[in-house]
Design goal:
CATH architecture of the largest domain: 3-Layer(aba) Sandwich
Largest sheet: 8 strands, mixed
Shape: elongated
Strand content: 15-25%
CATH class of the largest domain: Alpha Beta
Bound molecules: adenosine-5'-diphosphate, magnesium ion
Number of strands: 17
Number of domains: 2
Length: 435
């Protein structure tokens, strides 16, 4: 680290105590991604590298921000105020213009800061920026690659000996950052991973707090900062699926089934029956017409003496429900796009039933046969948590990503879709209504 850099290193910020921060400050590449776990000291590094660049090159100009202005104020801006020594921008030569959001240092360097806003706002804002020597985007996973490239285009401030720097920090997130910096590792790009254990300034019970407040996967993601931690966006981790295949549970109690009816000629209609926690039958056929499917299903109802048959009632499934409902009271049309019974936890019923299915896998309360298509589809299910509610990737999105429509997985989900089943189960014995 160049000697002049120590000018800004007050007692408050000493990157030599954090090996990764130290490496980040010494890196020479134009594009730097300091990415990984929460609390790894990423934001602090970006702020202080920005400060260093201003101190080192009098007259340098930079932009520091993130997508959301409020987020920026709450975190990065506070750290900027914490780390930037006030004497560096003391009047009369220096100024902090809060409403125009810039700070001018006594050596003539300027830093612009703030939120970029939505895409249209960000594009406009970036296009209006002056020529820059560096920028720092905190939580860069929230901006688009296009915005990043526009910002990169602003790096053309003419200053003798200047080293242009594009500094990015991010939490683990698949997307353009991972492609650019990790999987493709493009030239002049440097990725430095951050872990909370690198940062000595965190409270000692930080890990404990994370583990208590987040799900196993989320806590692991935050602690290990791994951009490829198994199960991050996978609904059911692969080891849980493998265990469910190996497990042997007794077939006990009444038999319940799920049916996912194909929408197109080439797609498959799938029927899955379970007795207690054990899947006992998987039958699939190419959907021909609704009458054919209804006839096949009627036979399966009789064969298994079904107590409940949940049929996805959106689209063609609804027609099958109509054909069977009068003769077979076990048939229930289920509209998975309806509101969940716990709408604060699940985006819709589909998310609720899948969430509970995933829980069964986690708790070891399911036994499935070694069925290639079913296993492959379960592995491919992805989840998200928009506004803290569970959401499962839609069939359309899965098709767009090139994975097969999860027809077997959906039938399994329907076979275990349990809301109200206990109540109704007591009303039917061996397919006959008893009360
Ligand atoms: N080298 C350092 N010296 C002093 N405080 C630091 C240092 N590195 C990080 N911190 C402080 O630790 C806390 C967490 O770091 P932060 O940069 O916000 O982590 P991240 O952005 O990776 O989540 C912040 O309060 C930050 O100011
Ligand atoms: Mg941060």
């Amino acid at each position: 680290m160049a000697k002049t850099r120590h000018i800004y290193l007050k007692k408050l910020y000493d990157p030599s105590v954090n090996k990764q921060q130290w490496i980040a400050h010494q890196s020479e590449e134009r594009y730097l991604l300091y990415g990984g776990a929460y609390g790894g000291g990423k934001t602090a590094m970006g702020i202080n590298e920005g400060i260093a660049l201003r101190v080192e090159y009098p007259g340098n100009r930079g932009f520091m921000g993130c997508r959301d202005g409020t987020d920026f104020k709450r975190n990065a801006f506070n750290q900027l105020m914490k780390f930037l020594p006030p004497e560096l921008y003391a009047p009369p030569r220096g100024v902090h213009h809060q409403s125009d959001m810039y700070i001018k240092l006594i050596n003539g360097s300027v830093i612009y800061y703030g939120g970029l806003g939505n895409d249209a706002e960000a594009v406009k804002k970036i296009s209006n920026m002056p020529e820059l020597g560096w920028f720092f985007i905190d939580q860069a996973e929230e901006i688009t690659e296009n915005q990043f490239m526009l910002l990169d285009g602003r790096l053309r401030l003419v200053l003798s000996g200047i080293k242009y720097r594009a500094l990015l920090t991010a939490n683990p997130d698949p997307g353009w950052l991972r492609t650019r910096f990790i999987s493709e590792a493009r030239p002049n790009h440097r990725y430095i991973p951050a872990l909370p254990k690198d940062n000595p300034f965190l409270p000692s019970n930080y890990e404990e707090i994370l583990k208590k407040n987040f799900t196993k996967d989320m806590a692991r993601r935050m602690l290990e900062g791994d951009w490829d931690v198994e199960g991050i966006d996978q609904l059911i981790p692969y080891p849980d699926i493998r265990d469910a295949i190996k497990r042997d549970m007794p077939a006990k109690g009444s038999t319940v089934a799920g049916l996912d009816v194909a929408e197109f000629g080439g797609a498959k209609t799938v029927f899955i029956a379970r007795q207690g926690n054990k899947v006992i039958d998987i039958v699939s056929w190419f959907h021909q017409d609704t009458e054919f499917s209804a006839g096949t299903v009627a036979e399966l109802i009789r064969k298994h003496k079904l107590v409940i048959l949940n049929i996805d009632s959106i689209g063609k499934g609804g027609e099958v429900v109509v054909l069977l409902k009068n003769d077979y009271p076990c048939v229930r049309g289920v509209n998975v796009s309806e509101q969940a019974s716990q709408p604060d936890r699940y985006i819709n019923k589909r998310a609720e039933f899948y969430g509970k299915l995933a829980k069964r896998f986690e708790m070891g309360e399911i036994d499935i046969p070694d069925h290639t298509a079913l296993g492959a589809e379960l592995v491919n299910l992805h989840k998200k948590y928009p506004r803290a509610r569970l959401q499962i990737e839609s069939k359309e999105k899965m098709r767009a990503r090139g994975v097969p429509s999860p027809d077997f997985a959906d039938a399994l989900m329907l076979a275990f879709a349990s809301d109200g089943i206990k109540q109704e189960a007591s009303m039917y014995i061996r397919g006959r209504r008893v009360g």
